[in-house]
Amino acid sequence: MFIMKNYVLFLALILVFSCKNEKSNEIKNDVSTIEKSLTATDIINKSIEVSGGENFKRSSLKFEFRDTYYQALRKYNEFLLVRLNVDGNDSIFDMLSNVGFERYNNKTFVKLEDSIAKKYEASVNSVHYFSVLPYGLNDDAVHKTLLENEKIKDKDYYKIKVTFDAVGGGEDFEDIFIYWIDIKTFKVDYLAYSYNEIDGVGMRFREAYNERYINSLRFVDYNNYKSEDTSIALENLGKAFEDNQLKLLSKIELENVEVKLVDINL
């Protein structure tokens, strides 16, 4: 009888242990299913949310970049992006808005050739674009593709490729971007992009650092790298960075950042 009781107890323990394992596997499988079911848009949405979310759409930003003053005002579907350069007694204002691009010398409107205006517009937009990433990656002209996950410096990342439509994609619509988004935090830690040059395609890889939140919005600076091996594909720059194959070119640093949230009812 004693042996029988022990045998029954042993079977019960096995059954309990088996049930726990099955439950544990079910939980793991559920988590795995959730992770696998995330689309590129889902991941970008989560990344935007942890970086400031809807507050980007109602914000007034001021910052300095390389001795140049920038300001951005966003009120949902309306925006005004400003760049100010001071040269002696002259103040050059470049302004990009829903209406288009305009340049002023002090208070005087400056008439520009279309080709020159487009270059200035692209230059202004580029700085403002990078300043608030990943905000903007859900615009209508943006196309996102989820690539295979990748590990960089012992962290796992979602890897997303971004391309743009010719219509609505800006002057540099042919540029291609890759974003590495932390699987746990959904923050953008790395990005790479290709751009057209006169003698071919150039590429850059950026490593985010100096993260700070200012009035609920996330800002980072970047270490800016290039590859001297032109045979390395854009998608492989993360691996090249991991293997110390990239050269540090510069630092992208935003200074004196100020953020105010706008009352959209005004």
TrEMBL record:
Entry-linked Pfam families: DUF6503 (PF20113)
The family database entries (InterPro entries) matched by this protein are listed as: DUF6503
* PROSITE patterns found in the cross-reference section: PROKAR_LIPOPROTEIN
What is the name of this protein? Deoxyribose-phosphate aldolase
